[in-house]
């Protein structure tokens, strides 16, 4: 996204469309890293996948090699459809909500500070968590976790959703909403805050009001890296809370965090950091640069006739 200091307000249709396009493409490109991260987080000290012979994964590369060898290449894309739909929707909501919160927080001169950009990001993240992220992340996690069973219960996205709702009610797809809100709020606050600060510094350095795509990609990647290490514990708790046996294992988010600390140690809160780092560094670069490109394309198309009315 262009700098959050930008004075021009984009039409809502632009922010929703550009965010959705960027989110969908980003999720397809980076999904294997999300799969690996989720597998590592679901495996606690005593758990192992029944479908890989009961062998625990030793690291990110082992997850990929073992999964492809025992279940085939397509297995690393299990749960993809839920994430693509969810990521397209959440990115659209995120950029739209960020623009709305940013406008609300502008000062009398129409400017917004880096601190207020962080607050706008926090609001955008929590909005997307409630509307989109929690149900899609829950479904994705359960589909991946189910794939580890000797005989998986779910036969794809639609059957999986129906089975979850039938067994757990509508609340079954909203499991872990508190840690998801915390994670998404923190993610967007850090990502937009870092991006806004670095973007403004870069613009001041080169003396331009817009940045080349390479600069946008690089700044977005840096924002993604910072986001990973500052919000990883929230992501681990979120994943644990959305596993197949979460209702039996944890009374809530704080109970889950305590049990992870007690049973697996403090470093367990950064389990899966490497694949998540790979994903969010790529994600940050891809999604911000694609968002900018899509916004520019929409403006060019609008020059030939109104599409935002």
TrEMBL record:
SUPFAM superfamilies: Mitochondrial carrier. Solcar repeats lie at residues 10-104, 115-201, 211-297. It is found in: Mitochondrion membrane. It is a multi-pass membrane protein. Keywords: Membrane, Mitochondrion, Repeat, Transmembrane, Transmembrane helix, Transport. Its main location: mitochondrion. InterPro entries: MCP, MCP_dom_sf, MCP_transmembrane, TXTP-like. Belongs to the mitochondrial carrier (TC 2.A.29) family. This is Citrate transporter. It comes from Linnemannia elongata AG-77. The lineage of its organism: Eukaryota, Fungi, Fungi incertae sedis, Mucoromycota, Mortierellomycotina.
């Amino acid at each position: 996204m262009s700098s959050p200091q930008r004075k021009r307000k984009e039409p809502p249709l632009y922010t929703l469309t550009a965010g959705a396009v960027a989110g969908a493409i980003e999720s397809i490109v980076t999904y294997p890293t999300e799969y690996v991260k989720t597998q590592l987080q679901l495996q606690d000290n005593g758990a192992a996948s029944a479908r890989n012979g009961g062998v625990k994964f030793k690291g990110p590369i082992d997850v990929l090699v073992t999964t492809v060898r025992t279940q085939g290449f397509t297995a690393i894309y299990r749960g993809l459809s839920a994430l693509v739909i969810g990521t397209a929707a959440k990115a659209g909501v995120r950029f739209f909500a960020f623009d709305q919160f940013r406008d609300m927080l502008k000062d009398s001169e129409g400017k917004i500070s880096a601190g207020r950009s962080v607050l706008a990001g926090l609001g955008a993240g929590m909005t997307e968590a409630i509307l989109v992220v929690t149900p899609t992340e829950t479904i994705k996690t359960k589909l991946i976790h189910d794939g580890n069973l000797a005989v998986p219960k779910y036969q794809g996205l639609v059957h999986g959703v129906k089975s979850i709702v039938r067994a757990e009610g509508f609340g079954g797809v909203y499991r872990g909403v508190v840690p998801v809100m915390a994670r998404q709020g923190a993610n967007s606050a850090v990502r937009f805050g870092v991006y806004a600060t670095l973007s403004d510094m870069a613009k001041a350095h080169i003396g331009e009001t817009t940045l080349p795509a390479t600069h946008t990609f690089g700044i977005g990647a840096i924002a993604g890296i910072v986001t990973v290490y500052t919000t990883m514990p929230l992501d681990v708790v979120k994943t644990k809370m959305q596993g197949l046996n979460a209702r039996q294992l944890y009374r809530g988010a704080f109970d889950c965090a305590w049990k992870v600390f007690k049973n697996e140690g403090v470093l367990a809160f950064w389990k899966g950091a490497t694949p998540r780092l790979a994903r969010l560094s790529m994600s940050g670069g891809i999604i911000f640069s694609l968002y900018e490109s899509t916004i520019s394309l929409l403006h060019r198309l609008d020059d030939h006739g109104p599409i935002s009315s």
